[in-house]
């Protein structure tokens, strides 16, 4: 069972999985609202998955994160808690959740790796989303400690490509820059980036 299957990472997994012999169930928000436990339980009851790849998230770029921190926290915490609780209740053998690069501490040494996730606060610009994603790691370990669940997570870094959000108002940096570059070339105008170049 793949949540968030219509997004960037979900579509990438789907392209690879189509070559595999395993059967996948591809979910999008049209199949139910994972923020609601009732919807989540109905999905798990209907499909009875043995494995879950949890990609569903309320996402957006820098400005959307700064404008709606409460929604980023609440929507993601609800989705993640509901999916992991249902995975436990329905005896799912393995869950792999997708985290985000923004969970790493803002002030850190490089190179970074997954052992450093909780070594300091994330950047203030997206801390609600970052902490909600960090809690997946904490929740995974709690379910393993208490129930022996095989819940884990991955942290893809700077992914972009087909099926990404290229909307200039709320995209991430790379797809936003790609779209701006495309428009600059198409309309033969200068390629301009947002901001003054000073860090936030």
TrEMBL record:
The segment(s) forming the NAD-dependent epimerase/dehydratase domain are 1-199
Q: Name one GO molecular function term.
A: GDP-L-fucose synthase activity
Q: Which domain of life is it from?
A: Eukaryota
Q: What is this protein called?
A: Gdp-l-fucose synthase
Whose protein is this, by species? Hirondellea gigas
């Amino acid at each position: 069972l793949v949540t968030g299957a219509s997004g960037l990472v979900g579509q990438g997994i789907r392209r690879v999985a189509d070559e595999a012999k395993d059967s996948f169930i591809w979910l999008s928000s049209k199949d139910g609202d994972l923020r609601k436990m009732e919807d989540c339980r109905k999905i798990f009851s209907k499909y009875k998955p043995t494995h879950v790849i949890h990609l569903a998230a309320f996402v957006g770029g820098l400005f959307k994160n700064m404008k709606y921190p409460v929604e980023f926290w609440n929507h993601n915490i609800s989705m993640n808690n509901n999916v992991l609780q249902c995975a436990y209740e329905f005896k799912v053998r393995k869950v792999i959740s997708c985290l985000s690069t923004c969970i790493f501490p803002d002030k850190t040494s490089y190179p970074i790796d997954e052992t450093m996730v909780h070594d300091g606060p994330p950047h203030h610009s997206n801390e609600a989303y970052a902490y909600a994603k960090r809690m997946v790691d904490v929740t995974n370990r709690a379910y393993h400690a208490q129930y022996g669940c095989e819940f884990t997570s991955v942290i893809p870094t700077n992914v972009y490509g087909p099926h990404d959000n290229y909307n200039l108002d709320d995209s991430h940096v790379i797809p936003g820059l790609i779209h701006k570059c495309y428009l600059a070339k198409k309309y033969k105008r200068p390629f301009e980036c947002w901001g003054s170049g000073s860090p936030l």
